[in-house]
């Protein structure tokens, strides 16, 4: 059973920037000041008009590129294209398709359409592709990735001042606009669900400890346990995102002799492993031990019994980013 509680907890960050994440447009005067020439000289160099020394023209254009200068919207080359670019590091994971469906759903209600860039987790390729497509007059850019770990912010030199939204994988830049799932809230809600079912001896099984999604969900769970006057029945275990880890971690919990009536796992594959191990030990799920997962993947519905799970609301994140 999927819970929609996390849909109420998507977090949006856009401190100090415009709503759409647009960086301030570099002006001709700023380029002129950096090049120590007059604005009229800059205009001649950028528009390839008037008499100006070739060396000066090259110098001005180099400085303009470095600053991320874009010609005004009124320029024929910069008229609205109606295209939003979506750049992703991931085309194979389970999260990208529902995210893109959300983007398309939102843009389908407007005059815009999307074009997709696959950057292969290669920062240099990402910058090159984005800079090239930005120079052709797209109207905005959405950046996404395979996980919720924070990433570096793109410079205006690369984006040419385009409005940029970082989705699912947030930017470290405080002035950037990022739309991310509320993983901390999800952890809290998972413990709340277990507690409301009368469970008080709750164990936590994390995934890879260096992943933000894993630690955020666990931190949310710990906060809710503390709020309710509870503590995890054993030390928190961190491992992988795979089903085998759920089996291993649950076996350790039971072999330690602790009484457990609830387990929160940070994803559905780990939850499935936990349920498999519990059943081999003769324990009923959810009667003896209730298990809650996360991600709302198809495996949650292919497991018997069906896993109670939380969704990342990826279509909604995609729609909000667009």
UniProtKB/TrEMBL annotation:
Q: Which Gene3D superfamilies does this UniProt record tie to the protein?
A: 3.40.50.2300, lambda repressor-like DNA-binding domains
Q: List the SUPFAM superfamilies hit by this protein, alphabetically.
A: lambda repressor-like DNA-binding domains, Periplasmic binding protein-like I
Per its UniProt entry, which superkingdom is the organism in? Bacteria
Which InterPro entries did the record assign?
A: HTH_LacI, Lambda_DNA-bd_dom_sf, Peripla_BP/Lac1_sug-bd_dom, Peripla_BP_I
GO terms (molecular function) for this protein are: DNA-binding transcription factor activity; transcription cis-regulatory region binding
Tell me the segments the record calls region Disordered. 1-24
Tell me where in this chain the HTH lacI-type domain is found. Answer: 26-80
Identification of the protein by name = LacI family transcriptional regulator
Q: What organism is the protein native to?
A: Bifidobacterium scardovii
């Amino acid at each position: 059973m999927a819970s929609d509680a996390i849909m109420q907890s998507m977090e949006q960050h856009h401190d100090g920037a415009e709503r759409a994440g647009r960086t301030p447009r570099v002006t001709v005067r700023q380029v002129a000041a950096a090049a120590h020439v007059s604005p009229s000289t800059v205009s001649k160099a950028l528009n390839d008009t008037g008499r100006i020394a070739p060396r000066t023209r090259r110098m001005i254009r180099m400085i303009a590129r470095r600053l991320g200068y874009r010609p005004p919207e009124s320029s024929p080359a910069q008229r609205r294209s109606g295209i939003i670019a979506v750049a992703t590091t991931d085309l194979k994971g389970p999260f990208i398709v529902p995210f893109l469906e959300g983007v398309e759903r939102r843009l389908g209600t407007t005059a815009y359409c999307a074009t997709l860039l696959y950057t292969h987790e290669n920062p240099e390729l990402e910058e090159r592709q984005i800079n090239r497509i930005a120079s052709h007059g797209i109207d905005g850019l959405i950046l996404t990735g395979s996980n919720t770990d924070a990433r570096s912010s793109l410079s205006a030199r690369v984006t040419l001042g385009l409005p940029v939204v970082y989705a699912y994988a947030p930017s470290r830049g405080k002035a950037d606009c990022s739309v991310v799932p509320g993983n901390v809230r999800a952890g809290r809600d998972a413990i709340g669900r277990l507690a409301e079912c009368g469970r008080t001896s709750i164990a936590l099984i994390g995934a890879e400890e260096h992943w933000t999604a894993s630690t955020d969900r666990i931190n949310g769970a710990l906060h809710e346990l503390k709020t309710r006057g509870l503590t995890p029945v054993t030390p928190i275990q961190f491992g992988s995102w795979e089903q085998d880890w759920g089996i291993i971690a649950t076996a350790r919990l039971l072999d330690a002799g602790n009484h457990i009536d609830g387990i929160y796992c940070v994803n559905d594959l780990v939850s499935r492993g936990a349920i498999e191990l519990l059943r081999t030990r003769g324990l009923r799920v959810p009667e003896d031990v209730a298990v809650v997962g996360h991600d709302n993947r198809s495996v949650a519905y292919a497991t018997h019994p069906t896993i109670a799970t939380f969704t990342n609301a990826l279509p909604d994140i995609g729609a909000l980013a667009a």
